[in-house]
Write a structure and sequence with these properties.
- The structure is a homotrimer.
- Chain A has about 160 residues and is an alpha+beta fold.
- Chain A is built from two helices and nine strands, in the order βαββββββαββ.
- In chain A, the strands form two sheets. Chain A has a five-stranded mixed β-sheet. Chain A has a four-stranded antiparallel β-sheet with strand order 3-7-6-8, covered by helices on one side.
- The relative contact order of chain A is 0.30.
- At the A-B interface, β3 and α2 of A face α1, β2 and β5 of B.
Chain lengths: ~160, ~160, ~160
Amino acid sequence: MSWTTPKKAILLSASAEGGTPLNAFDNALLKMGIGNANLVKLSSVIPAHLEWLDRLPEIPIGMLLPTVYAEATASEPGEQIAAALGVGFRPDHAGGLIYEYSGHGDRAYAERMVRRMVEEGFAMRGWELAEFSLGVAEARVKDRPVAAVAAVVMFPY
Amino acid sequence: MSWTTPKKAILLSASAEGGTPLNAFDNALLKMGIGNANLVKLSSVIPAHLEWLDRLPEIPIGMLLPTVYAEATASEPGEQIAAALGVGFRPDHAGGLIYEYSGHGDRAYAERMVRRMVEEGFAMRGWELAEFSLGVAEARVKDRPVAAVAAVVMFPY
Amino acid sequence: MSWTTPKKAILLSASAEGGTPLNAFDNALLKMGIGNANLVKLSSVIPAHLEWLDRLPEIPIGMLLPTVYAEATASEPGEQIAAALGVGFRPDHAGGLIYEYSGHGDRAYAERMVRRMVEEGFAMRGWELAEFSLGVAEARVKDRPVAAVAAVVMFPY
């Protein structure tokens, strides 16, 4: 993280139940394969010429991973939450943008929100939006706490 | 960021409107020149013998930048917000302190709050406060969401 | 922090009063010996084969320190808060987990919460819980703002 620029990334999402909201969040990270890393939260821009991975590389337990993430948790029976990351790409892959939504609502609402934010972010920069990727998860409380998480995890190699 | 100690820094602030609170935040970062970096949020101490910059060095898109920041957003017409960083310096430049305020209020209120926090932080450490710098932004909602942001961005070179 | 894996760590906790909630937080960090570092907040897993320190190594002013922390602040007279980190260890020290609680309640409540979260986190991973450490602080507002903080600070050396 020393003022470096990440080289690779992966877009992940999951929802899960747990005995507490934090355990539900942890369980969602486990499903995503990043439950045994130390996440360092980043704001939301995509480095230029990033290679996107289809599956996670091996991660040593406790490794520090720079990650953009959106997360929502809920405990009230019937409560509906969603978390989404919308990723916009420029035609020449010279950078891109990530926007997040987390809170009440369903998958469709979260997707609309992040798509709108990506479009505005590109318009503000005078960038052409060539491609849009979505990571989204939703959950509704039955009797135990739930979490919805979407993440872009970045790697130097 | 690997347990290194930053060498240079710059104090920035801006406010902006946007279609959503997150876009307003993004637009404020763009005005400040750091809208295309990945910010890593820091707590609030100034390394010793830091050189303060008057303008931003070139930043590759997506670079990881350790940053202390205060940010407030609002959406209700008439709502008034401010964000401020108060930076206190020791006489010998052997370190310093940064305190943040973000929330309701105007520029003058935010300045009073951070000045008071800096003074207390210095008093608690038995340090002499030789100099005080302020980064502050305020915004009032007309019809679109607004954000106010103040930041100290740190560099290794 | 560049995708490295920490080598050493220390578990700390303290509570303090201050003129504002942020100063109270700062004063708690000062008591813990980390008031003059830049904390980078981490999520909550323990790297494998981490060596645990009994006292802090020397920390240059402003050094970037990856830290898992739980913190609560309060300002209303009579308000009672606590912050805790529960640290679970595997028998072979091949990793472990940290869970946090912060909010209303006393030391005993915060301890029960983090113990329960650690147990569930280990059960979800099919790990045996060989050892449990607790860092906890509580505070009750008399007339000035208070903070309670628990932290695991990580080092590369």
